[in-house]
Design a protein that fits this description.
This protein has 10 helices and 6 strands. With 242 residues, it is α/β, with parallel strands linked by helices. The longest helix is centred in the N-terminal third of the chain and has 25 residues.
Length: 242
C-alpha cells in the first residue's frame, strides 16, 4: 500500500513539475513584465451578492483582457493560472494567500500577482479594489480602486487596468489605445458583463454548452461585445456548436 501511495505521489509531483517546466519554457525568451490575476472576492450587499457572484470570475477575466491591451507586458491567461492552481491542489476558487500566490507566480513566470474584490450598495454603486503582490518579496507593492455605477462596470474595469499599469510603473500603453478601449467599454452594459461572467463560470465548471448559450445571448443583445465574441470562437470548436 505504501509503495502504491509513494508511486502515486511521485507521479503527481512529476505532473506538477511538468506544468511548471512547460510554462517556464514557453516564456523563457519573453522578458516583458508579467502579471497574473487571481479570482476576485464578492462584497456585494443583500440579494446583489448572489446576482453578482459570477463577477468573481468574470471581472478578473475581463481585467486580464484590459491589461493585455498593453502589448509591452505579458498577462497570464486565466486558463493557465487555473490549471496550475488545480495541479497544486489549491481548489478551484483561486482565493489563496499572498505567499501561496507568490509561489504560483514563480511557476507561471509572473512578477506580479493581482488580488481584487468588489463591493456594492443599494443605490447601484460599485467599488472595485485591487492590490498587487510582488512575487519575489511576497509583499503588497501597490493598492488601488475605482468606483462608479454598476452599469458602467466595463468602463471601470478599463480604468482599473490603466491604474494598475501606471501604479506598477509598467511600460506605458501605445498612443491612442487607452481612449479606444474606454470608448469600446462604454458600449457594454452590466447585463452583458453578467452574461459573459456566467459563461466563463460555466466553462470553468465543465459546462461548455451552457457557456456557449450565455455567450450567444450576450452577442445577440450586444453585438459590440468583442470579449464575448472571442470567447465564443474558442469554445465552439470544442462543443461543435455552430
Amino acid at each position: 500500500m505504501m509503495g502504491s501511495l509513494g508511486r502515486l505521489g511521485a507521479r503527481w509531483g512529476m505532473a506538477v513539475a511538468g506544468v511548471a517546466f512547460a510554462v517556464a519554457a514557453a516564456h523563457a525568451q519573453d522578458t516583458r513584465p508579467t502579471l497574473a490575476v487571481m479570482t476576485f472576492s464578492n462584497g456585494a450587499i443583500g440579494t446583489a451578492n448572489t446576482e453578482l457572484a459570477p463577477l468573481t470570475i468574470g471581472l478578473p477575466t475581463l481585467l486580464i483582457d484590459a491589461l493585455a491591451d498593453n502589448t509591452k507586458i505579458r498577462v497570464v491567461e486565466r486558463e493557465n493560472l487555473q490549471a496550475v492552481i488545480k495541479e497544486q491542489n489549491l481548489g478551484t476558487s483561486g482565493r489563496v494567500d499572498p505567499a501561496t500566490a507568490a509561489h504560483l507566480g514563480k511557476i507561471l513566470g509572473a512578477g506580479h500577482m493581482i488580488f481584487g474584490g468588489f463591493v456594492t450598495d443599494p443605490k447601484g454603486n460599485i467599488r472595485i479594489t485591487a492590490r498587487s503582490v510582488n512575487v519575489e518579496t511576497t509583499l503588497v507593492e501597490y493598492n488601488t480602486d475605482v468606483e462608479g455605477k454598476e452599469n458602467d462596470l466595463m468602463t471601470l474595469i478599463t480604468q482599473l487596468a490603466d491604474k494598475i499599469n501606471s501604479g506598477l510603473k509598467l511600460p506605458p500603453l501605445a498612443a491612442g489605445v487607452k481612449e479606444t478601449s474606454l470608448q469600446q467599454a462604454k458600449k457594454i452594459p452590466l447585463q452583458a458583463t453578467l452574461l459573459y461572467s456566467r459563461a466563463i463560470a460555466a466553462k470553468e465548471s465543465g459546462k461548455s454548452d451552457e457557456a456557449v448559450q450565455y455567450l450567444q445571448k450576450a452577442i445577440k443583445e450586444f453585438p459590440d461585445f468583442g470579449q464575448a465574441q472571442d470567447a465564443l470562437k474558442k469554445l465552439q470548436p470544442a462543443t461543435g456548436t455552430e
